[in-house]
Amino acid sequence: MASDDVASMGTLQSFSPPSFGGLGSAFFTWFSVPLILSDDTSIPTDIKLPILYDFHNHIYDPHWHFSCGTKEYKVLMDQFHHVSTAFLELDQSYQKAIEDITMRMGGGMAKFICKEVETVDDYDEYCHYVAGLVGLGLSKLFHAAKLEDLASDFFSNSMGWDMAPYIEAIDSQQSSYFILRCFCDILRVRWEKMCGRTKERALLKMEKLVEGVSKNSPPVAEMIRLCYVVNMPTIPAFRKEYGQLLASCGLIGEALTIFESLELWGILIHCNW
Description:
Shape: globular
Number of strands: 0
Mean pLDDT: 76
Structural class: mainly alpha
Order of helices and strands: HHHHHHHHHHHHHHH
């Protein structure tokens, strides 16, 4: 990948999605590391937990690295000293924003290594650590750059319409990854379905999304790129959400067909009540 004599920020960007320039792209690299560590089942828990809890301190150490992951993720972890060097070149306001989010994300990942996701509240909390903090982190960086007011945790978790500028930026770039485009479309649907004037448009967008994710194009390897940084629903959950949107628009027959295929008998009974 990169050699020692390459500028550290340039090295950092080589690990990041091409559709995000500068700091906006680098931020995905810092916040993906706790997920890489958490997902690597080959690391014993007694070794993994201290690293996750202390990761926000490791980013200040230009010599720290930890070999784990596979393919490009392993390259990233093996050469993490480039990431730390780039981090130390940032303005202190950016450093504090990144430190805060990596501390909270590392702690959250550690918590759910020791705890199973058993309830809806557990799932919501897990999604906050995996996806909500990513939105909050991006908002903190833009706030540090004096480009926007800081969003609350609530808006970062719900990905409300404060995310509109980011959604528009991703939609406008042909090079944006498939899963990012899909996730941004889901956020748009979830927002627009709440307004009567845009509800029909949300339904049409959702129909296209359901058809799109069920196809074999693009290839699976391309579809799942960056899946670790977005709270993308599974296809059954996706279809369930589509069925609920159909029902809310009065298209009960089509909704029932979807619920029946997913064997959601409780919802079927409710719709027929």
